[in-house]
Specification:
Strand order of the largest sheet: 18-17-19-20-25-24-23
Radius of gyration: 41 Å
CATH topology of the largest domain: Rossmann fold
Number of strands: 34
Number of domains: 5
Structural class: alpha/beta
Strand content: 25-35%
Shape: elongated
CATH architecture of the largest domain: 3-Layer(aba) Sandwich
Helix content: 10-25%
CATH superfamily of the largest domain: Class I glutamine amidotransferase (GATase) domain
């Protein structure tokens, strides 16, 4: 139904959803044949009594023939209605063909982009097939359906990685199908937004007016974290083909929690790793390998469904240097990508912390953190806070060494990460000058007062101190700190509400501090007096506390949890993570600066011994290969024995989270007018026809068919003269 200018009329174009059934119209000849065979032929007999009837013969014959023609037309209409119903006859809504509609009549040329999500979660096995295999089978059947795409169509196949699909248009359908068949699960965590963006870009250069995108994905929540790009105005349809399942039979192994600093050589090593269980109970076994050699097996125990457990991997002592750690889990489950994890263990000497304390306290090491209430020395309490004697040496982060006051002038302080001045009465000018040189060279000096402190002993320090110590005051009543700016590097851990706040401890005594002009008050007491002051001196840092861990000074030693956090945070800021070790997410090959490289080409060697040369992408930035999980070493070609960077690659832990979103949630993220979410087995043609752009005539045609059947049954016997026997 078209206007004179060829455009669709008010009802649009009348079409058949299944044009092949139009051959059923040939059955219109069946009623004609039936009429010809069954029609009655009367013998001509003339009787005198028939004269009266002969006078009405002409009118009676015309009425009988008219009824026969009406019955013939009714029977022919029955076949037309049957073809219309079976062929899904319908028309487009007023205003043109809907964006969701299928081409009227014969299929029209289309520009089609097939997007196959091959992220790691698509490797989930269900009934012996991965989700990517199910997506490829569905996409192949869709492309090979000749009723959908007419001659002149063009196709493009995209995947989240370069494993399948070149991203260009192809006119050959068979070539597109071959690309679909090459799709395999990858290791990346790229979501729907990273697929739809390139797809919409391709459509901007499409040659056909009919433009459609088919995205095959598993509808996991993590794949829709990023906001998809806006749909183009020319997009005719966005079909989300759901190949996921509402089940989670996976047991996932988390990344090894390796600290970003060197572990002590010669001591056992503990590495935590997390195991998360899905819908079924599990008893996983952890296998540990170091440098390619098995180093033991550990059972994670019996784990209930939807539970998780943190397992401490017990490793033997290792020699100094870098060691490749591989952690595997058995038995195999539905998702294999998270059953093996990799990391680098850097083994060496611990950072050294120098401790300067009262001379009488050196050699008296029986005090622990809680012993301050019984008269414990401030220096020994701080030693126990930094390197707790009750904690295995493998878990120590620092090595504490005494610096005798009498030997300070002869002591080489350059090797210390930080020096802690603990309850020292005071130092002479030469000692303060020695500490000033250490700080100016980049060292960190932490000053903790105590019962022995004397303001006069700190006056020779001059501008080295961030504040002048004017005396020691008694807090009546006891006062608490008022740390409010938790964005300060030293206070950031206290933003975690599970950690005891430094504000929850009382000070009974405190040093009265007068901050310098260039100093920073990290946090005050509740009455406004400075509680912690810092300042930059040369390349280093000086931190001065007004409170003490001594028992008669407050609760910072007897209830030491927040003080330990604060002290370790100060040392952590002074000791940044190792720059020559990194952990990368698979599939995210971002630009990374390697400080140890001078901008020359690097050779990246994997755990299998294969090497890849990479060139700098600008300055000292490199794009490191990160497609395959494993451990890698990057070294300059001129010095391959000295790695500039060691890095591990693991599949993102988010790919193990198989929770799914609903079709309505998908539609809320994209244009509802063009999106359809379909499951396997659903008729794509029917679903598209119900998208709002095409009106099917199945119901009215069916009612008309029933009415004609009633008419035909009521009057057929009368017209053919059949009688009951």
């Amino acid at each position: 139904m078209r206007c004179a200018d060829g455009s669709p009329g008010p009802l649009g174009e009348v079409s058949l959803g299944l044009p092949g059934l139009a051959w059923g119209l040939l059955a219109l000849g069946v009623p004609i044949v039936v009429h010809l065979i069954l029609r009655e032929r009367a013998r001509r007999e003339v009787f005198p009594a028939m004269r009266f009837l002969l006078q009405t013969h002409a009118s009676a014959t015309r009425t009988h023939r008219l009824r026969q023609l009406l019955l013939l037309a009714a029977r022919m209409a029955l076949f037309v209605l049957a073809v219309g119903i079976l062929g899904r006859m319908g028309c487009a809504r007023e205003g043109g063909v809907s964006r969701m509609g299928i081409a009227a009549g014969a299929p029209t040329p289309a520009s089609v982009v097939v997007c196959i999500d091959n992220s790691a979660s698509m490797g989930y096995r269900y009934q012996g097939r991965t989700r990517v295999e199910a997506a490829a089978d569905w996409a192949r059947a869709l492309l090979e359906d000749r009723r959908r795409f007419g001659p002149g169509s063009q196709f493009a196949v995209l995947c989240g990685s370069a494993g399948a699909g070149s991203g260009g248009w192809r006119d050959d359908l068979r070539s597109a199908v071959r690309l679909v068949d090459t799709a395999r699960p990858a290791n990346h965590n790229l979501g729907a937004a990273q697929l739809l963006g390139p797809a919409f870009t391709l459509l901007s250069a499409a040659r056909n007016a009919r433009r459609e995108v088919y995205l095959f994905t598993d509808l996991t929540e993590t794949s829709w974290t990023d906001t998809p790009p806006p749909t183009p105005a020319t997009l005719g349809g966005l079909y989300i083909m759901d190949v996921g399942q509402d089940e989670d039979r996976n047991v996932s192994l988390g990344w090894p929690q390796v600290p970003p600093y060197e572990l002590p050589a010669g001591a056992p090593i503990n590495v935590p790793v997390r195991v998360v269980v899905g819908d079924l109970p599990a008893e996983p076994v952890i296998e540990i390998s170091v440098d390619g050699k098995p180093r033991g097996r550990q059972s994670a125990g019996s784990l209930a469904p939807h539970s998780q457990a943190e397992i401490a991997l017990n490793l033997p002592s290792l020699e100094p240097g870098g060691h490749a750690l591989t952690v595997g889990m058995e038995p195999a489950d539905a998702l294999a990508c998270d059953n093996v994890r990799h990391a680098w263990l850097m083994v060496g000497t611990l950072p050294r912390i120098g401790l300067i304390q009262r001379q009488s306290a050196i050699g008296d090491r029986q005090w622990a953190i809680g012993d301050s209430a019984r008269g414990g020395d401030v220096g020994e309490i701080l030693r126990a806070m930094i390197a707790p004697p009750a904690v295995p040496a493998s878990e120590h982060r620092y090595a504490v060494e005494d610096i005798p006051i009498g030997d300070m002038l002869d002591q080489n302080t350059s090797g210390y990460l930080a020096i802690v001045l603990a309850d020292v009465k005071g130092l002479n000018g030469l000692a303060w000058e020695k500490l000033g040189g250490y700080v100016n060279a980049g060292g960190v000096l932490v000053i903790v007062p105590g019962p022995s402190i004397s303001p006069d002993g700190y006056s020779p320090a001059g501008n080295l101190l961030p504040a002048t110590i004017e005396g020691v005051g008694v807090c009546e009543p006891p006062v608490r700190p008022a740390a409010a700016n938790l964005s300060h590097p030293y206070l950031q851990p206290f933003a975690d509400l599970t950690i005891d706040s430094i504000n929850d401890r009382y000070a009974f005594k405190r040093a009265d501090l007068k901050p310098g002009a260039s100093s920073t008050v990290v946090f005050p007491f509740a009455d406004g007096a400075p509680a912690m002051v810092e300042s930059r001196v040369g390349k280093g840092q000086v931190v001065l506390l007004a409170f003490s861990v001594a028992a008669d000074w407050g609760q910072f030693g007897t209830q030491a949890a927040p003080t330990i956090v604060l002290l370790h945070r100060i040392l952590e800021v002074a000791h940044p993570p190792l720059e020559n070790v990194a952990s990368l997410t698979a599939g995210r090959a971002g630009l990374r600066t390697i400080a140890a490289a001078d901008g020359s080409p690097l050779v990246v060697t994997g755990s299998d011994g294969t090497g890849t040369s990479i060139l700098p992408a600008g300055g000292r930035g490199y794009r490191l290969p990160a497609d395959v999980p494993g451990t890698y070493e990057a070294a300059e070609k001129s010095n391959p024995q000295l790695p500039a960077l060691r890095y591990s690659v693991n599949v993102s832990q988010t790919e193990s989270q198989l929770a799914r979103i609903s079709p309505e949630q998908v539609k809320s993220r994209v244009d509802r007018q063009v999106v359809q979410v379909l499951r396997p087995g659903e008729d794509l043609a029917v679903a598209a026809g119900e998208g709002g752009g095409r009106v099917t005539w199945a119901v009215p045609l069916g009612l008309m068919l029933l009415g004609l059947l009633v008419i035909e049954s009521s009057f057929a016997n009368r017209f053919y003269g059949w009688r009951r026997r």
